[in-house]
Design a protein that fits this description.
Structural class: alpha+beta
Largest sheet: 3 strands, mixed
Order of helices and strands: EHEEHEEH
Length: 108
């Protein structure tokens, strides 16, 4: 692992993702500065894109997806992706977090 200098959440970084839904709003909380993190850039990028694409996939037209990042007191970076899409029960979350877990393949 190495430090990924200057990794940031920005509208520019999200420009090539697209929503696939004209009526879906993507909000990006801009940061005043980059938040360096420790990790493998390609894997961090993939995790972020997976979170964002799932949030967009499960948000209906007219809904919103919001992306934000901040540095917390411990010095760690917190990345938050929220949406107005469908919710998951506690049982569904446990399944989704298990290796290869999928709550409902009809929604994939």
């Amino acid at each position: 692992m190495r430090r990924v200098a200057g990794w940031r959440v920005s509208g520019r970084a999200l420009a090539n993702i697209g929503t696939g839904q004209a009526a879906l709003r993507l909000n990006v909380a801009e940061l005043g500065q980059a938040l360096p993190v420790l990790g493998e850039a390609a894997k961090l990028r993939q995790v972020f894109l997976n979170l964002l694409s799932n949030a967009m996939k499960f948000t209906e037209a007219g809904g919103q997806v919001t992306v934000a990042a901040s540095r917390v007191a411990s010095g760690c970076v917190t990345l938050t992706v929220t949406n107005t899409g469908i919710d998951m029960s506690k049982d569904d979350i446990a399944v989704a977090l298990a290796p290869f877990g999928q709550v409902d393949s009809r929604l994939a």
